Each structure stands twice: as structure tokens, then as C-alpha cells.
């Protein structure tokens, strides 16, 4: 598709009727979403004006005597100019996006929104007002540019069709499936923003109901100071993007938006695991726990098995495109074929949540089961975490259980995702290690015996597969 000077789309290689139909669809979509771009323009003017009225007073330094790469005056100036220039870009490209068939202008506005959420982190926003304004307006701009009107330009190339993958028993992109991800990501966002508020200096003390000054020690630790930016604020940014991406696209996005499902999967799965590993290493590296850090990690953990099925469906669709001789590159960015998809007739509508809350809630967890073996392993992992406190352990024995217990728990929870049930086998070497290693350290006899029995049980519990309730098409052969 090319664009003429008047902004109207020209469909290469298609009949005049197809050009008219596509043009009519674009113009109708633009009429319905015109208010979005006027709102973006208004937010642009707001950012230009707010950049000089917010943060002039009540400026603060980061917590824990942390040294940052800009002076206080430089941080104030950087935030002001960043917000002002970002606002100007929103006005200019928001105005351009008022015309149909200008997806580049819409994408530029989206990336400006992403920058607005990042700038307070990069420049260590010197006041809570500047941080809140940038992150919230940035999130709103992202929602306005790619969530509410849909992916820019998608109307002109989206392939219509079913929304359930072939030979699957459910749709991994349904709204109930994504609703639970939205709730979990929002919870992580809330916890991370409070931790970021402490590191950036907006609150004097982080909330810590269980571990004394543990949160302060973690947030002001050498591990945390090794980052050039606030690691808590970076976590809040990641949860912001996850929260917004969970909203993006329709119920067939595994087929129509493979690129988005891929990036969302990267945020949730590998980066989520990195986040969890960093949290569980806190008692070993820092010697303290942080309640809100643990809460954010616990919210991230179930997102991994809940998201992996959508990634698998997306990958299957790209493979089908390649087998049909289509360009995988084009299918990745513009969506794949719809021939083999079917209509999802099983998932209840979100509108029914007030009438059938149990049914909607159950459908949000399709693909996730908790067999007794994995549930018992998860509980055993939690029990191992408390052994050092129960027996006043310190040094290597304590580190062994502080790391081993959470690792067992994480493996068991991730393996509750039916498509990745094979992950449970990782608990075999983990359990055997927990059974043997206490005898190689100065671990009290009773603790070593408990660890041996528990570790051996964990290894044995990883052998049974447990129940599998759903079908995953060609992926079924890997569900073992």
C-alpha cells in the first residue's frame, strides 16, 4: 500500500473496488477515533505547559546517598526540556494523525508516550510531581495511540477470520485469559511504583510490614546502586508496558499481531524470570528480604505460565505461514493467514462477569492446572525458605535454603502451565541437590535430615505429569 499526496491510501496490485473499500474503511475508522488524536494534541500542550510549572519546588535527592549522573539543577532542566519537546512532538504528529493513512505519525506519538514514561527514570526526576506526570501521561498516550484505535494502519491489512487456534480447546487470546494478566501486571505496577518512590527520594521510608528495615537495606544495597538508574523504577516501567500490552489487540491477536505477542512474551517470560531471580537472591546478596519486592515477584510468577500458551499459538501460526509459502517476516509484522483458525464458541464474554463470575474466572485460567504433585512441591519449596529462620541458620546453610526453596517453588508454579509441564523435571536435580548439599556444609543434623527427606520428595514429585485438561494442537506432543 502506498499513500498519495492527499493522504489517501493507494492499494498496489488491487482492483479499484478494493481500493475504494479499503479507503472507506480507513476513513470510517478515522471518523470514529478522531477524538483520540485531539486528546493527544491536548496532552501535548499540557506537557509543554506542565514542564515549566511542575517540579520547580519540593525537589529531592535519591535515597541512600546514591550518586547519579546529573546534578540536581541538571535533572530539573533535563526533565523540563524533555517534557516540553515531547509535548511539541505530540502536538505536531497528533495533528498529522488527524488524517487517515498516516500510521507513521501515530507510531511516533506512541514512542513519545513510551519516552515520557522512561524520561523520569533516565533523568532521576527530582520531584514526585514530575515523575507522576510523565509516567501517567505517557501511559495514557500509549493507550490512546495503539490500544483504543488499534495498531496504526492495521485496518488496511488485517485478515479476518476465526479467533481460536486450530485443534486448540480454547482461545489463549480471549479477554478472560488476558484479564488475569492485566490484574497481575497492575498489582506489580502499584508495588513497584512505591519502591521507586523511595529510591527516587519522594518518600522517606518504604513500607515494610514484616522484615524490619529489610526493604531499605535492599533498595539501598550495593546491588541496587550498581544500576545507573533506579531498578525499582525500571521495574515499574516494565509493569506499565506489560499492563498496556495485555490490553492491546483483539481476541485473535495470536494470529493478527505476532510481533506484539512476541514482545509481550519477552517481557513476561525471560525478563520476568530475571526479575524473580534478582528478588530471590536478595537474602544471599544483601542479607535481607523486601516485602513489596516479594509481592511484585509473586504477581509476576503466575504471569509466566499464563502467557506462554499465547506465544505457542503465535509460533504455530507463523510456522503455518511458512509451510504455505508465505513470508514469515510479513506475517510477523502484519499477521498470518486465517484459513485454519476457528471461531471461539467456548469462552464466556466478559460482559457476563456479573451474571456468571465463576465461569468467567474459570475460563481465565484455562491451560493452568495444579496437580497434587506440583502443589506439594511448591509448598515444600516455601517450607525450605523458612528453615533458616526456624533453626537460626546463617552462612552457607542458610543461603542454600534461601535459594533452593524459591527455585523449587518457581519451577513448580511455572510447570502448572500445561504447555510447559516438562519444566517440572528441573526439580529432579534441584531436589537431589537439596538432599545432598546440606551434608557438605555445617548444617545441623536435624536440618540436614529434614532437607534430605524434603529434597528427595521434591525429586520424586517431579516425575508424575499430572492432569492435562486442554488441547494445544501440534504442541500436544511436547506436553509430557
How do the helices and strands line up, and which of them pair or pack?
Elements: E1 2-3, E2 9-10, H1 16-32, H2 34-50, H3 72-96, H4 103-122, H5 128-147, H6 175-199, H7 214-219, H8 222-225, H9 231-247, H10 253-256, H11 258-268, H12 270-280, H13 282-285, H14 291-300, H15 303-323, H16 328-334, H17 357-363, H18 372-390, H19 395-415, H20 427-436, H21 445-461
Antiparallel strand pairs: 1-2
Helix pairs in contact: 2-3, 2-5, 3-4, 4-5, 4-9, 5-9, 6-9, 6-14, 9-11, 11-12, 11-15, 12-14, 18-19, 18-21, 19-20, 20-21
Walkthrough of the structure:
The radius of gyration is 25 Å and the shape is flat. Helix 4 (103-122) runs antiparallel to helix 5 (128-147) and helix 20 runs antiparallel to helix 21 (445-461). It contains 21 helices and 2 strands. The chain has 480 residues and is mainly α. The protein has helices at residues 16-32, 34-50, 72-96, 103-122, 128-147, 175-199, 214-219, 222-225, 231-247, 253-256, 258-268, 270-280, 282-285, 291-300, 303-323, 328-334, 357-363, 372-390, 395-415, 427-436, 445-461; strands at 2-3, 9-10. Mean pLDDT is 89; it is low at 1-20.
Amino acid at each position: 500500500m502506498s499513500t498519495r499526496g492527499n493522504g489517501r491510501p493507494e492499494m498496489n496490485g488491487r482492483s479499484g473496488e478494493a481500493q475504494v473499500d479499503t479507503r472507506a474503511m480507513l476513513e470510517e475508522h478515522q471518523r470514529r477515533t478522531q477524538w483520540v488524536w485531539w486528546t493527544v494534541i491536548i496532552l501535548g500542550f499540557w506537557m509543554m505547559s506542565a514542564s515549566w510549572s511542575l517540579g520547580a519546588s519540593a525537589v529531592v535527592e535519591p535515597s541512600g546517598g546514591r550518586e547519579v549522573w546529573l546534578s540536581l539543577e541538571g535533572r530539573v532542566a533535563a526533565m523540563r526540556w524533555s517534557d516540553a519537546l515531547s509535548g511539541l512532538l505530540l502536538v505536531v504528529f497528533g495533528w498529522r494523525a488527524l488524517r487517515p493513512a498516516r500510521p507513521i505519525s501515530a507510531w511516533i506519538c506512541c514512542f513519545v508516550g513510551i519516552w515520557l514514561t522512561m524520561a523520569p527514570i533516565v533523568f532521576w526526576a527530582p520531584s514526585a510531581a514530575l515523575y507522576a506526570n510523565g509516567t501517567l501521561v505517557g501511559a495514557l498516550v500509549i493507550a490512546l495511540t495503539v490500544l483504543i484505535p488499534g495498531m496504526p494502519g492495521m485496518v488496511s491489512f488485517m485478515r479476518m477470520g476465526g479467533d481460536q487456534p486450530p485443534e486448540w480447546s480454547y482461545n489463549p487470546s480471549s479477554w478472560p485469559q488476558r484479564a488475569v494478566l492485566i490484574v497481575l501486571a497492575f498489582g506489580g505496577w502499584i508495588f513497584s511504583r512505591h519502591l521507586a518512590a523511595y529510591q527516587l527520594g519522594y518518600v522517606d521510608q518504604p513500607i515494610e510490614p514484616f522484615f524490619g528495615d529489610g526493604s531499605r537495606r535492599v533498595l539501598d544495597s550495593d546491588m541496587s546502586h550498581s544500576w545507573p538508574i533506579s531498578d525499582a523504577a525500571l521495574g515499574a516501567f516494565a509493569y506499565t508496558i506489560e499492563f498496556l500490552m495485555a490490553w492491546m489487540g483483539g481476541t485473535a491477536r495470536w494470529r493478527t499481531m505476532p510481533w506484539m505477542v512476541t514482545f509481550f512474551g519477552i517481557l513476561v517470560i525471560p525478563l520476568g524470570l530475571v526479575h524473580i531471580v534478582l528478588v530471590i537472591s536478595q537474602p544471599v546478596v544483601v542479607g535481607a528480604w523486601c516485602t513489596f519486592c516479594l509481592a511484585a515477584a509473586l504477581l509476576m510468577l503466575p504471569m509466566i505460565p499464563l502467557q506462554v500458551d499465547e506465544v505457542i499459538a503465535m509460533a504455530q501460526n507463523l510456522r503455518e505461514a511458512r509451510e504455505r509459502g508465505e513470508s514469515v517476516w510479513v506475517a510477523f509484522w502484519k499477521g498470518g493467514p486465517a484459513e485454519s483458525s476457528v471461531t471461539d464458541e467456548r469462552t464466556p464474554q466478559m460482559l457476563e462477569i456479573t451474571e456468571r463470575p465463576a465461569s468467567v474466572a474459570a475460563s481465565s485460567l484455562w491451560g493452568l492446572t495444579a496437580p497434587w504433585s506440583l502443589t506439594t512441591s511448591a509448598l515444600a519449596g516455601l517450607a525450605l525458605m523458612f528453615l533458616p529462620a526456624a533453626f537460626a541458620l546463617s552462612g552457607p546453610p542458610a543461603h542454600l535454603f534461601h535459594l533452593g526453596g524459591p527455585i523449587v517453588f518457581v519451577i513448580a508454579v511455572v510447570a502448572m502451565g500445561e504447555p510447559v509441564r516438562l519444566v517440572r523435571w528441573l526439580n529432579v536435580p534441584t531436589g537431589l541437590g537439596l538432599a545432598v548439599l546440606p551434608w557438605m556444609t555445617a548444617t545441623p543434623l536435624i536440618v540436614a535430615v529434614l532437607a534430605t527427606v524434603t529434597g528427595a520428595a521434591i525429586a520424586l514429585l517431579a516425575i508424575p505429569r499430572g492432569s492435562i485438561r486442554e488441547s494445544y494442537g501440534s504442541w500436544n506432543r511436547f506436553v509430557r
